[in-house]
Design goal:
With 77 residues, this protein is mostly helical. Helix content is 42%, strand content 0%. The protein has 2 helices and no strands.
């Protein structure tokens, strides 16, 4: 979870993620973790800036051959 997603927007100061969306995200992540667990896998969940968290995870794991991600599309106003 990137803390920057829970701060005000640049235009109007409204939260990017309100309480209802946050609850939905948490429930979705919990459900995904349980589904993966039933299939013999796991889900790593961290809070922090992705550019820092991913680097820390790679260091902790030690033998990472690839990292795949997607970038959020930002609307140009």
């Amino acid at each position: 979870f990137d803390p920057r997603h829970y701060l005000g927007t640049h235009c109007f100061g409204f939260p990017k993620t309100g309480p209802h969306r946050l609850r939905f995200l948490l429930q979705s992540v919990r459900d995904l973790r349980e589904t993966l667990k039933k299939k013999g896998s796991t889900l790593v969940v961290r809070k922090g800036k992705p550019e820092d968290v991913v680097c820390d995870l790679i260091t902790q794991l030690g033998s990472v051959s690839a990292v795949v991600f997607h970038e959020e599309v930002r609307e140009i106003l």
